[in-house]
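Aim 2 progress update. The chain analyzed this quarter is reproduced below.
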Amino acid sequence: MAGSDIDLTLGDIFTKTVSGALSLTISNIPASGTFCIFALELINGASATVTLFPNVKWGDGTPPTLTSGRDVLIFYTYDGGDTWTGFYQLDNK
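Predicted structure tokens:
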């Protein structure tokens, strides 16, 4: 993934190595009524502040504390991105 934009026309699996403060955005979100899901793999997410796009509700009610390893975040929406539901699997080394 180049830059900080998650362009949903490019696929549904994105990988980003964090090397400094990062503010993620999403572009080309399908219209309301269309289910959209993608995975974001962050490497070294604990190394800097990572700001996610707005309107994320976490499946367990708690945003993740990223690790210095490999963290996988899954997001889905069906209302054109007005609400994203997020789930995560953090590196458990």
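The CA atoms of residues 43 and 64 lie 14 Å apart. The first strand starts at residue 5 and ends at 7. These observations will guide the mutagenesis experiments scheduled for the next reporting period.
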